[in-house]
Amino acid sequence: MNEAGDIKRTTAMRDLVGSETRLITCLANWNKQDPAEIVPAAIKEKVGLYGFTKPVVGPMMKPVDYYLSHLLTA
Question: Is the overall model pTM greater than 0.85, yes or no?
Answer without folding.
Answer: no
